[in-house]
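Provenance

Sequences were taken from public entries as deposited. Structures were produced by running a predictor on each sequence independently, with no templates supplied. The record for Endoribonuclease YbeY from Brachybacterium muris UCD-AY4 is shown for reference.
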Amino acid sequence: MTIEVRNETTARVDETEFVHLARFVFEALHLHPATELSILFVDEEAMERLHVQWMDEPGPTDVLSFPMDELTPGTAERPAPEGLLGDVVICPSVASKQAAESGHSAVEEMLLLTCHSILHLLGYDHAEEEERRVMFDLQRKLLLTFLASRRDS
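Predicted structure for Endoribonuclease YbeY:
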């Protein structure tokens, strides 16, 4: 697995924590060991530019996902093919504001956004109620299991 994490902000980000989360999700969803992912942390100005360019919406957002090879999850018997999963772009300052409103840490919010975005890159969506239930149930299970495994180690 190749997971590149870059922080282009002044926010403190433990890049290894995001690599560990991505690896955990990759393994849980049976992605090929050579799957590639990029996670980029940007400031509000850069995020706003991306938000306008790609979503035609003003203002910065918390996270954007840019799929590449349209990979989907595999199974234990049949792992997903090798490929480039895509890019996740996170804005720590927006995530921090959301975390404060939700009553948890900025790190937990950014881990949630990362997990959410990886699922989007794998084809999950939440436009319809049933899609939302499936995606958010999986997201919750993956994130809680990951966080529990980190506390145990």
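Residues 2-152 form a domain with the Collagenase (Catalytic Domain) fold (CATH 3.40.390.30).
The chain has a mean pLDDT of 96.
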